[in-house]
Amino acid sequence: MTLITLSKLEHDIDEFLAFKRALGYRYQRGQAMLKSFLRYAQKINHEKHLTLDSNIDFALTLEAWLSRTDGCKPFTVALYLGVIRQFCLYNRRRDPTFFVPEHAQAPKTESVFSPYIFSFKEIQTILNAAGQHQGKSVGAGLLRTLLLILYCTGLRFGEAVRLRLSDVDLKKCVFHIRESKGRTRLVPFGKDLAHEISLYLKERSHLCKSKSTDHDALFIRLNGRPLTVKVASEVVRRLLRQLGYKPPKGRRGPRPYDLRHAFAVHRLTEWYEQGVDIHARLPWLSAYMGHVNLIGTQVYLHATPQLLEIASDRFEKRLMRPRNSNDGKKKR
Length: 332
Description:
- The protein is built from 13 helices and five strands.
- The chain has 332 residues and is mostly helical.
- Helix 5 packs antiparallel against helix 6, helix 6 packs antiparallel against helix 8 and helix 10 runs parallel beside helix 13 (305-320).
- The longest helix is centred in the middle third of the chain and has 21 residues, at 191-211.
- It starts with a strand and ends in a 12-residue tail after the last helix.
């Protein structure tokens, strides 16, 4: 049994968050979950007329907190428990007896989500529509350039939106991605994309002069303010709805993030068509996309009819290949 006071719990949570930030993690979602757990514990103490120095049973409080909302999705409960486990493991470093919840305490989760893989034709349709976009906040040049960067480089949506002028090197054709998922990396891109970005930068320069803005953000809205992830997501979703890829309402259908999936699958497809060794190239793709290992990349490698057909053709050709006259002979 782990007993802890509310004042100690609050201090330990703040210390743990400082530790995570020192490692380079933004940890905003984790902070929100830990603060929610703290508020729940404070509420229980208040209802029992206890003080901040009164001990609470950490395990019982956690169990009640995890089951506080009827109908909460298993994935959400597992996510909450994962954050609490990290906090408990951190505390166990200095207190070997500190309670750590078992993985089994979280409900079993199976992801049934399947990303939408845009075809090359659909990507072209989206880019053409973006080039004709007439929005009150986001111009056509900005939207088209953002979508090109997402599809051509596979950057995470937030990484692309938050790019700054100082992060873009058009001479070397490199993006400098700063502190994303706790890591910083360089992402090279092609000359065609560099040309498209340079065209947008001219448009951006005229906009900044008319709006008297000096923001270093790469993407500037028509009102002179930097583009935000929320605004960008809404604009891209609206575009997908207009093209009929998403229903008029609801969360079903392709998401802005699916451009990253399309990048990974299309790159894999092109490698298959070129006949290269996929296993040798996967670490390249993993590093390029900013993953620590191949496990993170596997999420993006979904089979498409085209990919399956190419793989089947390669397998068939391998089976039909004439055997070498020396095959099967015993070595002497």
